[in-house]
Amino acid sequence: MRRITGALLVGLLLPFVSLAGPRIKVSKAHFDLKDAPNVLLVTFDTTRADHLSCYGYVRRTSPTIDSLAAHGVLFENAYTVEPLTGPSHITMMTSLYPQQHGATINGMHMSTHPRPVLLAQIFHHLGYKTAAFISAWTLKKSITGLGRGFNVYNENFTYHYKLVNSARRGDEMGADSRRWLEKHGHSHFFLWVHYFDPHHPYDLHPKFANLPHIKDAKIFPVSATVDADRAAKIRAYDSEIAFDDNDLAKTLKLLDNLGVRDNTLIVLVGDHGESLGEHGVWGHGYKIYQEDVHIPMIYSYPKEIPQGERIKANVSTVDILPTILSYVGLDFKVPGQSGYSLEPMIQSGGKDATPQPSFFEAYAEPALLPPQWMSMFWTWAETKRTPSLEGFVEGSTKVIRSMDNNSLKVYRLVDAFSKAKELPPGNVKVANLSGYREDLDTWYKDTNRGLAPQGHLSKQDLEMLKSLGYVNP
What we know:
Blueprint: E1 38-44, H1 63-70, E2 73-79, H2 85-94, H3 98-101, H4 119-126, E3 129-133, H5 141-144, E4 152-154, E5 159-161, E6 165-167, H6 170-184, E7 189-195, H7 228-258, E8 264-270, E9 275-276, E10 282-283, H8 290-293, E11 294-295, E12 297-300, E13 309-316, H9 320-328, H10 343-347, E14 358-362, E15 389-394, E16 397-402, E17 407-412, E18 421-422, H11 430-447, H12 459-467
Parallel strand pairs: 1-7, 1-8, 2-13, 3-4, 3-7
Antiparallel strand pairs: 2-11, 2-12, 5-6, 8-12, 9-10, 14-15, 15-16, 16-17, 17-18
Helix pairs in contact: 6-7
């Protein structure tokens, strides 16, 4: 693959950041647009990996996603950095953890001092047509700051839930995005589509109420004979996934009809999971159980990516931006980048996989602040709030730390879908507990806004940042 060469390790450039720097076009001498793929980023809100049929679920909730996985690479052990929509999506678009980009809860704008470099900005300055079609208020550009770099940021919501929180159905969002794609699909494009339906409240879609079952499935929903109310909610949740999967099929068919599917990198990922009664918990946001942080992640690009591979290595949503840029042909790191490109791992079918921990966190609901719905009219003030929970998965070990009392819980995972088995304190060596605390302390310290410059910037990296308006000439 043809790519721009440059330093692979670029640290934070914050002392050199200019919030109102020049906007210089990316030099054609450094980037040839005609060799680059289109990019379609598909995010499924509140979608657990273990409720997709390609991940072993008994109900065929996701035939379109299953086909996408069959024509690409599926990561079995992908994790979100935080089980909230706003912070999670900002991480995808910046390769920064929430404590770096500043948006630690829904309704909080990303940092403006300094501003993170966004994926859409990079594509815009490379000459791509850029568009986002989102389906929930938590991603409004006025709230998150995610609108920078998009030619179109479509947030035409059609209904409300929880009094005034606004959203729209996946078929409505999908239809709007396809109208844009029909117009711009023969240009180089970066298109982000966001499906929100699996989010609470779960609505049962009659067409998908009785999904066929898969023989030899490994994962089963709660039996109605055990808890009928819980089973009914899970059935409705599953129908929501199938409803959005059905709409995604229309978009992929349009790519085929336009003749651009083979030259389009498709990335499908969940922003976070959802507790469906496990541990007595419903919903998401403030726990980091497997149900909350284990997500689907699939990459498909017929011209480059192997087909039908499943990779077991732990990966994270911080890896999405560098992986996309790598396939586009850029060896460029945004300031403060925390993720790394998965391209070598993908191309080797998982053989070229350096073991890496996946870190995640949760923040407690803020006290004595106005309710979240008011963030439709203003953005949260920046604070120095710290997580209520931190954790990581490394190999088969999962660690969760409560920040209230610095206590640790250590689990063993047979696989990402199994119930995590908590190890009694006496079964974990004191040295290991000390090491786990040190790992979490180091991770958070190294990523907590990281205002000190690190690493080296190549000439190519400086020129890229100049073109994005982040460095004075």
